[in-house]
Design a protein that fits this description.
This protein has 2 domains: 93 residues, no CATH class; 108 residues, D-Maltodextrin-Binding Protein, domain 2. Helix content is 32%, strand content 21%. Strands 7-6-8-5-9 form a 5-stranded mixed sheet. The chain has a 4-stranded mixed sheet with strand order 1-2-11-3. A two-stranded antiparallel ribbon has the order 4-10. It is elongated and about 55 Å long. It starts with a strand and ends with a helix.
């Protein structure tokens, strides 16, 4: 028994269902049984000695998880804003906001899903760095807890600019367009590798390759 989870993209429902079916096929190919991981938060899952594979965010991979897990591979999406093993952060604003350039949003209110998110924080920070003044860009930052929460807060006027994972945006725009209605993409970050699949640090090269082939 081992932990195997794909929890980075759990909405819309057909994405969650497809990920679950994909995971089950991979486990069958590996001849592995899945242990219930519902009691674990993400860091505990990623660092568990009983981990078989999971998906993580690129920023924790380079910070919390550095040297503690093995990278198995990364997904290749065929989406409007994600392809060739890369995605980005989309800087999203309300459709009726008259400001047209990123520089116009200096001193605005930023919405970020989490301080340890690559797309929500790190790529945004890189994109805004040339526009900062005296070490800041936003007048205030709010951490919302999730990309969908950032979109909802933006619609509700609780912030002015949100940094959204491009895979999340594309999934929602396709299947839950009500969540992106009334919003527009103002700019995007530099591309970044898609969210990696990882296994435990003790995983050897042959085992990692078997998992990669199963995925």
């Amino acid at each position: 028994m081992a932990y195997a989870e794909l929890l980075m993209y759990v909405a819309p429902s057909r994405v969650r269902e497809a990920s679950e079916a994909w995971l089950q096929c991979a486990l069958e190919s590996l001849g592995a049984e899945r242990e219930d991981a519902s009691h674990l938060d993400l860091p505990a899952l990623w660092l568990s000695p009983d981990l078989l594979f999971a998906q993580t965010c690129g920023y924790p991979l380079m910070t919390l998880l550095r040297g503690k897990v093995r990278v198995i591979g990364r997904p290749v999406y065929e989406l409007p804003h994600a392809g060739a093993g890369e995605h980005c952060s989309l800087l999203v604003v309300r459709e009726d906001d008259p400001r047209q350039s990123l520089d116009d949003f200096f001193d605005s209110r930023g919405l970020i899903n989490s301080p340890d998110s690559n797309s929500g924080m790190n790529l945004l920070r890189n994109r805004l760095a040339p526009l900062q003044r005296d070490g800041r860009f936003f007048s205030a930052i709010r951490y919302t807890g999730g990309h969908r929460d950032s979109l909802a807060a933006l619609k509700n006027g609780e912030g002015d600019l949100a940094a959204i994972d491009s895979v999340t945006w594309d999934y929602l725009a396709r299947d839950h367009s009500d969540e992106t209605l009334g919003l527009r993409i103002l700019a995007s970050s530099a591309p970044s590798p898609t969210l990696p699949f990882i296994g435990p640090a003790h995983l050897d090269a042959a085992a990692a390759e078997r998992i990669r082939q199963a995925l």
